[in-house]
Design brief:
This protein is mainly α. The chain has 2 domains: 186 residues, no CATH class; 52 residues. 67% of the residues lie in helices and 0% in strands. α1 runs antiparallel to α2, α3 packs across α4 and α3 runs parallel beside α5.
């Protein structure tokens, strides 16, 4: 689901309306977590297990890093931190760089005169995996350094990881900024509708009316660089900057 699609607008209106119709903060959190998972599953439901796995890994790691006797054992804290790093970066590295490293290794062996073939896999890169991987890692590192307290509530931590507005396009949100917002009650009267609608509309115009319209021009030059001159390449680079 893309933010500029009409179905996202419908999705957002439903989420927003039901959220404020619910009276208890616990129900609201449950609703946001469920809709965030639905939002992510809308791209490919099979990859839900990745974000859930990443959530559980760092929830358990954070719990162990801040739990009782382990605070006195530096070695055990290092083990749990290393567990979090290997699990998250290993998952990210496999989906994002497996074919690159395998192909590069095979080419190196062939250059050395050794028989080698690259067992490439048809791996689909899960959307948003970089964002939520580094987001959960930032939480583990902050708990390890004592910058934030551990989150005991699994639902709150899962919502921190899967919150749909920044799940697939960022930015990476720090737990110190996000999690404390769960401690206070929220009122519809506190919502600054004018400012929110202005940001919503401004972002939509930049994405749908500017960035998406420039993308075909940039892609055309980058797809066949030899067909264009120097000035076209400079123009494409500048337009690509505007697109980003």
């Amino acid at each position: 689901m893309i933010f500029t699609e009409l179905r996202f607008l419908f999705f957002f209106v439903v989420v927003f309306g039901v959220y404020w119709a619910l009276r208890r903060e616990g129900w609201r959190k449950n609703w946001l977590l469920a809709t965030s998972y639905v939002f992510y599953a809308g791209w490919d439901w099979r990859f839900l297990f990745l974000i859930v796995s990443s959530t559980l890994v760092d929830y358990v790691a954070g719990w162990q890093l801040a739990g009782g006797p382990l605070q006195k054992s530096r070695g055990k804290r290092h083990v749990w931190l290393l567990f979090s790093l290997i699990a998250n970066l290993g998952l990210l590295g496999f989906f994002k760089y497996y074919n690159f490293f395998v192909d590069s290794g095979a080419r190196l062996l062939q250059w050395l005169g050794l028989p080698a073939s690259a067992p490439a896999l048809h791996i689909i890169l899960p959307v948003g995996i970089s964002f939520y991987t580094f987001q959960t890692l930032s939480y583990t590192l902050d708990v390890y350094r004592g910058k934030i307290p551990v989150t005991r509530n699994l639902r709150d931590f899962a919502l921190f990881v899967a919150f749909f507005p920044q799940l697939v396009a960022g930015p990476i949100v720090r737990a110190a900024d996000f999690l404390p917002q769960f401690k206070s009650d929220h009122r519809l009267a506190d919502v600054r509708f004018r400012a929110c609608l202005s940001l919503f509309l401004f972002g939509y115009i930049k994405k749908a009316c500017v960035s998406d319209q420039l993308a075909p021009l940039v892609d055309r030059v980058f797809a066949d660089p030899a067909a264009f001159g120097c000035s076209a390449h400079w123009l494409a680079v500048c337009v690509f900057w505007v697109q980003l």
